[in-house]
Design brief:
single chain, alpha/beta, 430 residues, Rossmann fold, 9 strands, five-stranded mixed sheet, binds iron/sulfur cluster
């Protein structure tokens, strides 16, 4: 694609990076075939190609974002399915991130939209605040329908619908070192996450149990924070960078102390962001190098488990499992076959879900801010899951787990919980 940025514009590293991305697009439109919003809405401007044009126009002209551009960019799930499909290697993720930051800086959203976004940014990344908010939400659930009648309050209705009826009592907030059982093979830190540790503390617990059982010393650091992806997807660059720097400092201190072989991530959405810290902070004189180092040793739990060569379990479980690959896992991190391989190795019969490339509608705060599209995608995903008639479902992202559990009764577990169970741990009822 031809671009028309001025030399002056290209002196800005963010603009020049986006210009290089735009030049790669050859307008072929292959990406439209796998874009969930184009599939549902059929509008070119809700396709990756259409959004690329909107972003190009906005950035090239150096103009503030307008309502039309914001509307179509807001409808993008950041599922990155288009990146998997694109034959030209267009890095849509960096482009849309830049567009969102530009929107945040130049567009004044309607009052209620601003309030919801501020509330989400002030609550979700902080486990204690999030836990408190979920308690309030569980008490307010009966009033949810009232909000659904008022279009401007739809996000409130969506939030109440997503909130679990009861929160787990147990909290995973143990910090410190969990020693390896037997001979120590590796030493890792786990990123215990923000929303995940509140919504389902069993996931971190299963991770620690499984790793230590296979000779890995696990550290859970008190000073690590949210990965920053929730605010990053709202275009709040400064806040996202603040979170990234806090984590980089905490992990680097540990690397310089007793050393770390890897940083283990059990939420694939966070994994995509942490693996991109190197890019996010590439222009920072203070953190560019350490951010790159952190991104290089960040691993999804399944990537690390592969290194451990877990034994093959011969006695098959009688349960049929459907594996739901989160977008951030398959498109963001390109981890596709590995979780399925580990589950099969652990004795599960793994079924493939039709239209597995399509998003379930979770996408960070998307299911709150764009609840109509999110609901349609959820229903489509559940229909596809039910078509293979599984006893249980596995996934590697708490966002998808929460989204899907609100629409069906088939139990859905994190992959690591099922692997921990298969290799001698306990599995809580869901
Ligand atoms: S990220 Fe997903 S929703 Fe957004 S343009 Fe790409 S395929 Fe479509
Ligand atoms: S598939 Fe890639 S090159 Fe083709 S239109 Fe989409 S983004 Fe552009």
């Amino acid at each position: 694609m031809q671009t028309d940025f001025t030399i002056q514009q290209l002196l800005d590293p963010a603009q020049s990076h986006s210009e290089a991305i735009l030049r790669k697009c050859v307008h072929c439109g292959f990406c439209t075939a796998t874009c969930p919003t184009y599939q549902l809405l059929g509008d070119e401007l809700d396709s990756p190609r259409g959004r690329v044009y909107l972003i190009k126009d906005m950035l090239e002209k150096g103009r503030p974002a307008d309502q039309k551009t914001v509307e179509h960019i807001d409808r993008c799930l950041s599922c990155l399915s288009c990146m998997t499909t694109c034959p030209s290697g267009v890095h849509y993720m960096h482009l849309v991130d830049h567009a969102r930051a530009h929107i945040e800086q130049t567009y004044k959203r309607p009052l209620l939209d601003r309030v919801f976004r501020d509330v989400l940014a002030l609550i979700l990344p902080y486990p204690d605040r999030f836990r408190f908010a979920l308690h309030l939400a569980s008490l307010s659930k009966p009033f949810g329908k009232l909000f659904s009648a008022m279009p401007a309050l739809k996000p409130m209705h969506a939030m109440l619908k997503l909130a679990p009826k009861k929160l787990p009592k147990k909290r995973f907030c143990k910090y410190g070192v969990f020693p390896a059982i037997g001979k120590k093979r590796y030493r890792v830190a786990i990123h215990s996450g923000c929303a995940q540790r509140v919504l389902d503390p069993d996931i971190n617990s299963a991770t620690v149990q499984l790793l230590t059982r296979f000779g890995v010393e696990v550290v859970v650091l008190r000073d690590e924070v949210c990965c920053g992806s929730l605010v990053h997807h709202m275009g709040r660059e400064e806040k996202a960078e603040y979170f990234a720097v806090q984590n980089i400092k905490a992990w680097t201190k540990e690397i310089d102390g007793d050393g770390l072989d890897a940083i283990i991530i059990t939420v694939s959405g966070c994994g995509t962001t942490i693996k991109d810290y190197g890019h996010m902070l590439r222009n920072s004189s203070q953190y560019a190098k350490t951010a790159k180092n952190i991104s290089e040793i960040a691993k999804d739990i399944t990537e690390f488990l592969e290194l451990l060569e877990l034994p093959k379990i011969k006695d098959k479980h009688d349960k049929t499992l459907a594996y739901h690959s989160a977008c951030s896992m398959q498109h963001g991190q390109k981890i596709i076959e590995l979780p399925r391989k580990l589950l099969r190795n652990a004795g599960f019969q793994v079924s493939e879900i039709p239209e597995g490339h399509l998003c379930c509608g979770s996408a960070g705060t998307y299911n709150i801010m764009q609840s109509g599209i999110a609901e349609q995608l959820k229903r489509r995903k559940i229909h596809n899951i039910k078509s293979v008639n599984p006893d249980i479902i596995a996934s590697g992202n708490i966002g998808c787990i929460t989204q899907l559990s609100t629409g069906m009764v088939i139990p859905i577990y994190h992959t690591v919980e099922l692997l921990n169970w298969a290799y001698g741990g306990k599995l809580s009822a869901k």
